[in-house]
Amino acid sequence: MSNQKKEPSGCGCANIPFSVILIIFAGGYWLFTQRNNIDVSKLVSQAQQITNPIVNFTPNITANPAPIIVPIPQATPTKIPSPAASSIAKITPNNQLTPIKPSIPKTAPLPANPWEKKIIRGIYLSRYQVTNNADEKKIRERVRYYRSQGFNTIIHGVWGNGCTMYNSKVMQQTLGYKSCPNLFQDQWLDWLIDEADKQGMQVHAYFEKGIKIDKNSPIFDLAIEKKWVVPGVDKTYSAIEHYVLDVEIPEVANFFKNILVEFVQRYPKIDAVQWDDYLGYHAELPGKVDRTAKLTTFVQQMITGMKKANSSVSFDICHHNPYWAKRYFAADWEKWNVDRVFIQVYNDANFQEELNYVKNYHGIAISEPQFHRLQALLDNPEVKSVLVFPGSGKPEETASTVNNLIKKNSK
């Protein structure tokens, strides 16, 4: 083997280790094949910040050596993602926002007058004032009439003087009568409720006279025979003598509860039932007997039975103020668990004092003698509802009078 030293050829590449050259070519080939997957511009910029891996290798270089050129693949331009559809919809080709059409404000409704602001604007119809000989057309017309006079609630008698104003199985089975003596069509209350619903009104079933009867009741003789009445005559109102059915007798208490349950099941769309001050005992009945607790128990049981049968129906009373009711009628109604209370104020003598009670409950019931106070009641926001009882017995005329008074005062 010759020990003679070879002269370098004209190319300085011979002095670069062959492994380094392979690495360079291999890297270039890899970059070329991955050009579609790599952002080369970023790679190059990063490479400028990295020390050359062969910087520590110092080859013997002749003058003006031929440079080694490694082909660098061209980077494919990065695709810009398309904007979201919601963005496109808001941008025009000139990058201007699409003008938004101004919304046209709706005409504001006229403010309600003081009468219309009352939650319940009710009128009482006694059980005979509509039902007698009334066909469907007449009943529906009556409902529309009261709606036209500004009322939103009809409080219609469905019970009174010990009998129902509809054909009752409970009445038939218990007393042998199916209803009060009346020339009504069996569907009269269905028509009334249906038309009221169409007119945006409510119907409250009025249990007129409550637990009291008079000598004209179809069950009077039977009640006397069965000893269902409390001894003595109830003279709450001097014009008529009443007899009070004794609800301490289980048979009497069950009769009333069954009547109420039957009613709310037969007429499931009724909005409320209302009992008045005849749900009570007059203080001047003979004997010093406190019936307050027994009456409370009776009413609570009756309400419980009704709610189980139809929980959507409101149990309301229209009674004397709580002090007067308990003191003179054994009616401690604050313990009855009723849904709504309307205070009867049919007497002008203590009207202002009665208003102190009215504002704590759900409304007031007045009659024609209080019409001169109507506007003051409407202007009083603490009076939540107003019920009108036509003491004259002419509800259509009473409704018209109320409507005319309201129109006159609103001018």
Account of the 3D structure:
There is one protein chain. This protein has 411 residues and is of the alpha/beta class. Helix content is 34%, strand content 11%. The protein is built from 13 helices and 11 strands. The protein has an 8-stranded parallel barrel with strand order 1-2-4-7-8-9-10-11, surrounded by 4 helices. The protein has a two-stranded antiparallel sheet with strand order 5-6. Helix 4 runs parallel beside helix 6, helix 5 runs antiparallel to helix 8 and helix 8 packs parallel to helix 9. The longest helix is centred in the C-terminal third of the chain and has 18 residues. The N terminus is likely disordered.
**Element order: H for helix, E for strand:** HHHEHEEHHEEHEHEHEHEHEHEH
Largest sheet: 8 strands, parallel, barrel
Mean pLDDT equals: 82
Q: How many helical elements?
A: 13
Helix-and-strand structural type: alpha/beta
Global geometry: globular
Spans of 5+ residues with little confidence (pLDDT < 50)? 1-15, 39-95
Strand content: 5-15%
Distance between the termini: 134 Å
Radius of gyration over all CA atoms, rounded: 47 Å
Helix percentage range: 25-40%
Order of neighbouring strands in the sheet with most strands: 1-2-4-7-8-9-10-11
The total beta strand count reads 11
